[in-house]
Amino acid sequence: MSQYIAALDQGTTSSRCILFNQKGEVCSCAQREFRQIFPKGGWVEHDPMEIWASQIGVLVEAMGAAGLHADDLAAIGITNQRETTIVWEKATGRPVCNAIVWQCRRTAPMIEKLKQDGWAERIRKCTGLVPDAYFSASKLAWILNEVPHARERAQKGELLFGTVDTWLIWNLTQGRVHVTDYTNASRTMLFDIRRLCWDEDILEYFDIPLCMLPEVKPSSCVYGHTAESVLGGEIPIAGIAGDQQAALFGQCCFTPGSVKNTYGTGCFMLMNTGNRLVESENGLLSTIAVGMDGKVEYALEGSIFIAGAVLQWLRDGLRMLHSAPQSEEYCRRVKDTEGVYLVPAFAGLGAPYWNPYARGVMVGLTRGASKEHFVRAATESLAYQVNDLIDVMKRESGLELTALKVDGGASANDFLMQFQADISRVCIDRPQCVETTALGAAYLAGLAIGYWKSREDILINWRKDRSFLPEMAQEDCDKRVKGWKRAVRTALYWAQEEE
Ligand code: ADP
């Protein structure tokens, strides 16, 4: 058998490729950034050809750096920025316009109309999503409405739609395979996550022809092989998952109740809910965690808009820090924040508060408040927001949270991890390999071809870097969380006054 699994990690700002061995160790890695295109305020686009070129480029580079040929790759797994929408010509492979990126807000009015038309509840029940311009549905409809002749050509079967996974596989196979997996399909807002098929009514609402949509397959199976002319060999493409679901899998969160949180610019928390689809009353999303072995597993997902970004703001906006990691040093210089709280609701508040008008507030200031208190309050705000999400997830799933697995840039902050363990009364486990997204895609591909035999086989690869156990007295912890909730109420009150 060949030796490595290649994970293609197609992110929002860069394309990466990591080659893993059987122990789940990184053997080679290459990364390339590509252009972010902002044609108008609130609009975000990527050039699909640049996505493809950068992705194939880093694959070749990673192989070259390790001296490998196509035969040395046992399989390829793909993980990708979710929801980003691409439409191309079936005959030529030429995109009809730029990719509309998940962040793009151009279709917000379409979503407003959809809500006015009374579709919000129907969408939520069917797709598990709260209707939003993030998801692919309205982006695809926009392309069909706005690109000349697009709808009529799509109806004739001349155009194809895909999320980024679909686009990459179509190119890797030179147009032979048009597929996606359950996790990516579940982010389009067009997919029925119970019946596991495209929903005819939603397609009709947006006037999207079914024939342009990819076939939806499990997250771990052989979808096809790379064309000989692309990489000089036919390598099986055997795993696909959207980035957050891939990270959940890469963190080996296989049992109901297991949770991972990624502390990046924002935070993404996913809880595996097994074969139960939990419907959230508090704006969490229900989504497909993974589809394999003839069934799907579900997850609850919650996100925080401003997490690590608050430290970037301290660094770049307020110039209080030289670097984000420096926050840890300041946090440790004081024993607490002396009652200062920062609620970084810079872009409103997400779950469980859901208020787009909320704005950042700082409360509890006294003459004694110093820069150290300020930085510590900012750092602690990540943990408080995550704690709010944990609370909702526990309540809604009815599952006890045994441990929280962490990754992402800010998970390197030991102070933050300890504080999280303290206020959330949960054991935090940080793995040695924080490349969990790519690893998840590699695992899915490797399992499909027998490179790894079972989930047990890969569980032994999850190696702990460090655990953080709750140490703070319950009373102190309650007092702090109570203070945070008061601070959040202030941010919400501020929003009310503004309306
Ligand atoms: P993304 O994938 O969202 O770009 P990363 O996972 O690379 O994010 O993490 C980057 C974020 O983590 C930045 O917002 C940065 O402020 C924050 N960060 C990085 N290192 C630390 C640290 N040691 N302590 C706190 N925050 C950090």
From TrEMBL:
Pathway(s): Polyol metabolism; glycerol degradation via glycerol kinase pathway; sn-glycerol 3-phosphate from glycerol: step 1/1
InterPro entries linked: ATPase_NBD (IPR043129), Carb_kinase_FGGY (IPR000577), Carb_kinase_FGGY_CS (IPR018483), FGGY_C (IPR018485), FGGY_N (IPR018484), Glycerol_kin (IPR005999)
Keyword Nucleotide-binding: yes
Binding site for ATP: T12, T13, S14, T265, G308, Q312, G409
Subunit annotation: Homotetramer and homodimer (in equilibrium).
Family: Belongs to the FGGY kinase family.
Entry protein name: Glycerol kinase
Gene: glpK
